[in-house]
Amino acid sequence: MRTSLLAFALASFALGCSSGKDGNDGPAIEATRQAIQGGTSTGASYPFTVGISLQGGQSLCSGSLIAPNLVLTARHCVAQTAEGSVDCTTAVVGSTFPTRSFGVTTNPDMFAGAAKYYSVAEVIEPSDSTFCGNDIALLRLTSNIPAREATPAAPVVQHKSFNTSRYDTKVTAIGYGATSAANDGSGTRRIKRAINILCMDGSRTYCSSPQTSDFIKPSEMITDPGTCSGDSGSGAYDDAAFTGGTYWIHGVLSRGGSTGNNCAEAIYTRTDAFAALIQQAGIAAAAAGGYAAPAWTQTEPQEAGDTPVAPPASVDGGKKDAGGGTSDAGPGKTAGLGESCEGATTCASDAGECLDFGAGFVCATSCTEDTTCGAGFHCEGKFCQSGDPEPETTTTTTTGCSTTAPTNASDATPMVLVLGVALAGIVSRKRR
C-alpha cells in the first residue's frame, strides 16, 4: 500500500487526514480502514456525516452536510496553518486552498472504488484570521447531493448550545478519523455516543478564563475523549436529540489531546457562535441550489435558556492556607482548594474556580511550575491539584485533520501540530 506525505502544513491541525492519490474519476484515498476511538462503524447510516478528500487525496477530514449543497467543517482543513505547538494568543490561519483541492463523499468508506465525490464551488470562512475560536468553514458544492443519498443535519444556530431546556449535555461524534493517537487508520465512518461536554462558556462550567486563554476561546467547547486524527471538521451532535432521530450539530472538531496512544479531550468550534455566518451561507446555498432555504436559516425569538450563566470569579492564584482554612468564604462559598464544588459560587475566594479534572468538580487555583500550591497539592496543567505529582507522561494535543502514518513506526514522519489544554490538565508538547 502506497503512503504519500502531505505537502502542506494542513495535517498539523487535523485529527484526521489520510494519504491517498488522485484518480481519473475524482479523489481516491488509500489507507487502513479504521476510525473514531472506541466507536463502531455506521455502515450506510448517518450519511450526513461526509468525508472530505484534501489536496487530491493526500489527506482527509470529516464534515457535516447541513443543506443539499452545503458542508460544515473545520477551517484548518481548507486553509494553510503553521506547524508547531498552538498558542491561541498568536496562532493564525493563512490562505485558503483552491476549491479544486477538495472532494466530498457520503460513502461510509472513503477508500471504496465506487465512492462518489462531489466538487466544491466555494469556501466560506470567518473574516477573523485568528485560528483558535474561528476554526470553522463551509463548503458550497457545485451540485446538490440528492435526498435519496443523504438528508442534511441542522446546525445549532437559532438558540444557544448551553440552553439545557432544549439541548443535552452530551454529544454524539461521527467521523472518518483514526482509532488512536498513533494515527492508525482512517477513512471509515464511525460513531461514538454519549460523550460528555466538559465545559462551554455560557453554561454552568466555563472553559475560558485568563488562565486558559493560551488554549481555549469563548466560542469553543471541550468534550471527553472520542475523536482522533482524521475526525477534524466532524460534528458534535446533540446526543438526546440523536436518539430521537433529530440531528443537531453543536460544533465542528478543531483539535484535541492525546496521552500515549490514546486520544484525549476534544475542542470544538461552536456553531451558535457563528450563527450569522452559517445562516447567511445557508440562504446563499439555497439560492444557488434552487431549493427552499432550510428552517435553521431563520432567526427565532430567544428564550430564558439562551441567557448565559454568569462566568465564575476569576482565578486569583491564591493558595489554601496550611490549616486548610476558608474563613473568608462567605455565605454559600465554603468549598476549599481541592474540595468538591457545584459551581463558581461554591468555591471560597482563596480556592479558585470549580473545575472538572476527570474525577468530579473540585475547587482549583492557578499556578506555575515554580509556584508552591501548599502541603498535599501539586501544580499540574496550570492548576493546583491534590496529591503528589503523577509520573511524567507524553501528552499532546492535535488539531483536526491527519495524514495516514506509515505502518512501520521507524518510518513515521511527524506531521501533527499539538497544543495544550490547561483546563483538562493536558501538558502541551509537539509530537515527535
Protein topology:
Layout: E1 20-23, E2 26-29, E3 40-41, E4 49-54, E5 59-67, E6 70-73, E7 79-81, E8 93-96, E9 102-105, E10 118-124, E11 137-141, E12 154-155, E13 170-175, E14 190-200, E15 220-223, E16 235-238, H1 239-243, E17 248-259, E18 262-270, H2 275-289, E19 353-356, E20 361-364, E21 377-380, E22 383-386, E23 395-399
Parallel strand pairs: 12-17
Antiparallel strand pairs: 1-2, 3-14, 4-5, 4-9, 5-6, 6-11, 7-8, 9-10, 10-11, 13-14, 13-16, 14-15, 15-18, 16-17, 17-18, 17-23, 19-20, 21-22
Features:
432 residues, mainly beta, Thrombin, subunit H, six-stranded antiparallel barrel, six-stranded antiparallel beta barrel, 2 helices, 23 strands, 5% helix, 28% strand, globular, disordered N terminus, disordered C terminus
User: Structural class of the secondary elements?
Assistant: mainly beta
Average pLDDT confidence is: 75
Which fold name is given in CATH as the topology of the domain at 9-297? Thrombin, subunit H
Q: What's the order of the H and E elements?
A: EEEEEEEEEEEEEEEEHEEHEEEEE
Helix content: under 10%
| Sheet with most strands: strand arrangement | 13-14-15-18-17-16
N- to C-terminal distance: 24 Å
Oligomer: single chain
**Helix segment tally:** 2
Sheet with the most strands, sense and barrel status: 6 strands, antiparallel, barrel
Global geometry: globular
Number of strands: 23
Radius of gyration: 21 Å
CATH architecture of the domain at 9-297: Beta Barrel
Could you list the spans in which at least 5 consecutive residues all have pLDDT below 50? Answer: 1-35, 315-331, 391-432
* CATH class type of the domain at 9-297: Mainly Beta
| CATH homologous superfamily assignment of the domain at 9-297 | Trypsin-like serine proteases
Strand content: 25-35%
